[in-house]
Specification:
This protein is mainly α and about 190 residues long. Helices cover about 75% and strands about 0% of the residues. The chain has eight helices and no strands. The chain starts with a helix and ends with a helix. It binds 2-acetamido-2-deoxy-beta-D-glucopyranose. One of its GO terms (molecular function) is pectinesterase inhibitor activity.
Length: about 190
């Protein structure tokens, strides 16, 4: 499996080839434009959402933006993930300040790393960059990394250590964020075709 770090390096090599591919990219861009620039019908939203972890959550999310094309919907979903991650970071900071139990405090501190600029937020920034470059396979990989970061907070990054039994709102926040990312994953797969 290609990690995000390896992918970033490969990206640099690819830049050398762009001149050669210019003409074919132009044709490809035209084709992509032709297929993705129209508002997608509700029927297509439901087809796309069948591939998501929670289809009804996906349909509600995408139908709240009815006249958007696939590219706009993807940007819209990235923006929601950003709001979710930012809200979760705020919650984690409050939890760190309020915890008296050292075990809990440690858990929230490591979650802050998982969600922060070295984790979910940083990976989301990179995902946004790749989206601007119309690298939709990269968007898919970036979104998977954000998902992994969040999973590290929820389940812990050491499989031998049982996950912290968290009674705060954090697991709920994480679960909703994961559902939104799952929508981003299916959108990026459909854009990549
Ligand atoms: C995440 O976004 C969804 C969709 O907009 C929203 O329902 C949910 O409340 C948000 N959660 C957080 C923690 O921001």
């Amino acid at each position: 499996m290609v990690t995000l770090a390896q992918y970033k390096n490969d990206g640099n090599e690819n830049e050398n080839n762009t001149m050669v591919c210019n003409l074919s990219s132009l044709v490809l861009v035209f084709l992509l434009f032709a297929t993705t620039s129209y508002a997608i019908p509700a029927r297509e939203v439901s087809t796309i959402c069948k591939q998501a972890k929670d289809p009804s959550f996906c349909s509600t999310l995408l139908n709240s933006n009815p006249n958007a094309n696939l590219v706009d919907l993807t940007q819209y979903t990235i923006d929601i993930v950003r709001v979710n991650v930012t809200n979760t970071i705020k919650l984690i900071n409050t939890l760190i300040a309020q915890s008296t139990d050292p075990k809990a405090k440690n858990h929230y501190k490591s979650c802050l790393e998982n969600f922060g600029s070295e984790g979910a937020l940083g990976d989301l920034d990179y995902t946004q960059e790749l989206f601007k470059k119309e690298d939709y396979q990269g968007v898919n990989l970036g979104a998977s990394s954000v998902l992994d970061d969040i999973e590290d907070c929820v389940s812990g990054d050491t499989p031998s250590v049982p996950p912290f039994h968290d009674l705060s709102k954090l697991p709920q926040y994480a679960a909703i964020t994961e559902s939104v990312i799952s929508v981003l994953l299916v959108l990026s797969i459909n854009l990549g075709h």
